[in-house]
Amino acid sequence: MLPFSEMRPPTMYPDAERLAVAAATIVAETLRSSPALRLVLAGGTTPKRCYMLLAAMGLSWARATVLFGDERCLPPLDPETNFQIASKALLRTVCPATVHRIPGELGPDEAAAAYEPIVAAAPLDLVLLGIGIDGHTASLFPGNDALRATGYVAGVRNAAKPPPERVTLTLRALHEAKRVVILAAGADKKDAVRRAFAGEVPAGMIDRAEWLVTADAR
Predict the structure, then answer these.
(1) Parallel, antiparallel, or unpaired: how do β-strands 166-169 and 70-72 relate?
(2) Which end of the chain is more exposed for a tag (fewer CB within 10 A), N or C?
(3) What is the rounded CA–CA span in Å between residue 86 and residue 136?
(4) CATH match for 11-217 among 3.40.50.1360, 2.40.10.10, 3.40.50.1980, 1.10.260.40
């Protein structure tokens, strides 16, 4: 396990809907104030609701560049890819200036190599992340070799949940981002959140991360 950094106390919300509203508000305010936002999207149920709210806000996305925190090594049209989930909930409606899809269908190593220069090209302004019940975030799983990657993007094998092959931003990329917001909703995340704040799992290893947490997850 890598060294644990001090974490900010979480911001608490009574339910998942109000958490999603808060996350959408953060994105909207950042989008309005940043002339050229580089926004990293996450997969998962709670971020998806955030995206649906953003799609209805009538914001200008003309200067936004969208990236992804991780991706499954599946065909690009597979509905389980983070790209397709985000496209359906948000991107097809708002049409950002640039969308950088992780080409997971190339396999973990080739896809990571292709995505590396895109992530490294400029600072990431805002990164949205979720947390799994095992404490993983993006596709950084407890004990996985990707935790030790030294670049900005890593291929993942033997992930603890299917599919086993993935691509993920690394801890280095997340540490160097300007702002990282982690969303945790639901009683099933309570133990993972506890372990994150104890520094025992990858979700708890990101410097300066802000946590938005529902009451039943804390």
Answers:
(1) antiparallel
(2) N
(3) 20
(4) 3.40.50.1360
Q: Give the pLDDT confidence of 157-211 residue by residue, as tens digits.
A: 999 999 999 999 999 999 999 999 999 999 999 999 999 999 999 999 998 999 9
> Whole-angstrom Cα distance, residue 65 to residue 123?
11
pLDDT tens-digit map of 112-158 = 999 999 999 999 999 999 999 999 999 999 999 999 999 999 999 99
Q: Are 171 and 140 in contact (CB under 8 A)?
A: yes
Six token digits for residue 172: 């280095």
